[in-house]
Amino acid sequence: MLKAIQILGSSSSGFVSQIWRKGHSPLAFSSSAGARTRISTTPFSPRGTRCFRANRVYATGSKSESNPDAVSSSQVAVQSAGNVRKIKFCQWCGGPTKYDIPDGEEKMRAICTVCGKIAYQNPKMVVGCLIEHDKKVLLCKRNIEPSFGLWTLPAGYMEIGESAAEGATRETWEEAGAEVEVLSPFAQLDIPLIGQQTYIIFLAKLKRPHFAPGPESSECQLFSLDDIPFDSLAFSSIFVTLNLYIDDIRTGKLNFHYGTINKRPGSSPSDMCAFSLDHHLLS
Ligand SMILES: [Zn+2]
To answer: How confident is the model at residue 178, as a pLDDT?
Structure first.
């Protein structure tokens, strides 16, 4: 299950950066990447009219008054969910913590005042599957918040004790009732800063042609690439993944993609106008 959110970030300096705009000319890239990684030199043409409208808002720095669709009740929730929750008590002994910079480190940490242990907070891993079947992809309509009623790939948080591929397979079973075989990794998308999430999406195929919505989905459906509901996707990470996949299919070569999604502060998880894909690398 994917409960939380890709969140907001400021644009980071990097070797590759692009902001999606309709009709944008080939994007200017500079690179410090290693020899085994190549940089996309083709313009990325995202689908979805909502994104195009939103990018104007993003580009001008305007508030969303000009785009009422971007304002929703979930927006507030997203903002608050984006903050790192303070750890007040030690998870080992229950003692109160204090925030300080431990010797040899640079960041503030929650340190137990009783047993002295340090509570490290790290990003969460979200794993999922992009399932190909008869030149279509399998999407699930969310039956839970956030992004209730919007479409997503089956994905969710990786559990302790499982591999990323096992987690993606499990989430696909839970959300889409589908038994899949993972074929290859397709994308790693970091959502840093407030988001603290990394997505790993695998290409997968159905072991048998059966799927059915689980409790977290109201509907599951195979979509041809021309019919993907880009105006009704739940998360920017899914929007990016599907766009990259379609571009790869159309160029005849499936790549592995890495990128960083930077969200505009205050935007909702399903606002496809309020983020940029930075550091896009493919191999
Ligand atoms: Zn303690």
So the answer is: 97
